[in-house]
Design brief:
Elements: H1 5-15, H2 20-23, E1 26-29, E2 40-44, H3 57-66, E3 76-80, H4 89-99, E4 105-108, H5 111-124, E5 135-139, H6 148-161, E6 164-169, E7 172-178
Parallel strand pairs: 1-5, 2-3, 3-4, 5-6
Antiparallel strand pairs: 6-7
Length: 181
């Protein structure tokens, strides 16, 4: 009978393993779910500056009229000027009009600024009341880039309704906020 004892002990130890994470009252808030899918593109005005310094209206208008905008079809386009030059507002407005029939969306600024705006728009549509008095884990790992601004905005909104906020994964969290009793 002795040889069966180790098996019995192992079986009893296995029976006692409890998944505390699965049984907890934690609610996961996954910012990755708010990511707007779609290809991103950048249109940089610097490529159309005269001597890298100024924008000539006549030349720029001709470029806008003759350029093939189909490369931006169904993309989210950020319009920027990465050169240290003063670009008149009307130039960005012309680009918005030219891109409108092709691009899914047109933004002024860098791709990072575009991502911040897209996440901000999505966060505005969240029903924060569903997190009332909940213990919320703001998911930390994702397959897409989530701007830090989205974490800050979500935490600000959750702080009004949630009982507590943690960051990370349910199995390993960093405490962020706990409502005072």
């Amino acid at each position: 009978m002795l040889p069966l004892l180790p098996y019995v002990l192992k079986k009893n130890l296995m029976d006692e393993i409890i998944n505390r994470v699965a049984n907890s009252a934690l609610v996961t808030f996954d910012l990755e779910q708010l990511h707007v899918p779609g290809e991103r593109a950048v249109y940089d005005i610097k490529d159309h500056l005269f001597q890298g310094l100024i924008l000539k209206e006549k030349d720029f208008r001709e470029h806008v009229k003759d350029h093939s905008w189909t490369d931006y079809q169904d993309k989210m386009v950020s319009v920027v000027c990465t050169a240290d030059a003063v670009v008149p507002t009307w130039a960005y407005m012309l680009l918005a009009v030219a891109l409108r029939p092709y691009a899914k969306r047109v933004f002024f600024g860098t791709v990072e600024e575009m991502e911040r705006e897209l996440f901000h728009e999505k966060l505005l549509s969240v029903d924060w009341e569903q997190y009332r008095d909940a213990k919320v884990v703001v998911k930390g790992c994702s397959d897409v880039h989530v701007p830090v601004s989205a974490y800050v905005e979500a935490t600000s909104k959750l702080g009004v309704v949630a009982a507590s906020i943690m960051y990370g994964e349910p199995c390993s969290t960093v405490p962020i906020y706990r409502r005072p009793k």
